[in-house]
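General statements about sequence and structure are easier to judge against a single worked case. For one protein, we set the task of working out the structure tokens from the amino acid sequence alone. The sequence in question and its structure tokens are set out directly beneath this paragraph.
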Amino acid sequence: MIQLKSNKQIGEYLKKQIESRFSKQADFCRGYLREIGVEATNEEIRKQANRLSQILKGDKGIQITDLPIYSELLGLSCEQILSAGEALIPKNNRPSNYLIAMSNDQAEWEQYVEREDKLILNCDEYNKTAIDYALEFGNYRFLKFMLDKEYIWFVDERKKKPGLGLALTPVSKGGVPIAEITGSLESFTITTD
């Protein structure tokens, strides 16, 4: 049985978890709104940010209806949240495109890209890749990481042509592009091996 912590302790714990997984609290709010099926307008984000601020300060407690959503977004079990991290019951070990794109942890990104099952190449249930989410959330650090490590590129240095490409292994380390998009905005070609 877990020992329920105070609102203040839970709030402090949630704040650390949100900061470690999201570049901004507003990104967490967007994710929350998406999970409950509400359009992430500026007004809705502001409302959620105010509500979240009260929870993080310990002024208000986390609501029972919010608990599974926070659990999903943060990759924590409900027990971990309510015990402020003392009950270390793993929720799951499955990273998702969404969580990776929201993460600020370069080691986590590297592990995700290097997975044998290559989840980075697959769309999720919303038909989005990690790159789609990173663009949507403005996680430019993740995109820069992908560019710097040569997993994606916008200009193919070998052919000196503009385009977009994706490889499982960096091209400079012998990686073979698995998909390339070349051409102009009016007419383009997608080639895959």
Remarks:
- Residues 97-145 form one domain.
- Residues 42-57 form the longest helix (16 residues).
